[in-house]
Amino acid sequence: MRITIEIDASELKKIQQLTGQKKKSPAVSRALADYLRIQQKQRLIERALTGATDFSLTNEELEARDLYEAH
Prior knowledge:
- The protein is mainly alpha-helical.
- Helix content is 62%, strand content 0%.
- The protein contains 3 helices and no strands.
- Helix 1 (9-19) crosses helix 2 (24-50).
- The radius of gyration is 16 Å and the shape is elongated.
- The model has no long low-confidence stretch (mean pLDDT 86).
């Protein structure tokens, strides 16, 4: 989908540097995809820690599925 958005030039440069993308659109797409993936992981972790889900995988199984991110 094509949209028009305003992004601060210095923030866009940082996004390009962090994602390693030279072109603007791929950099923004990558940053958005990374953000969504991190949020999904965080929500899963929060649900598991609060018991809001019946998630019976062990830590090793979570790490194998790349669903657990150590800080």
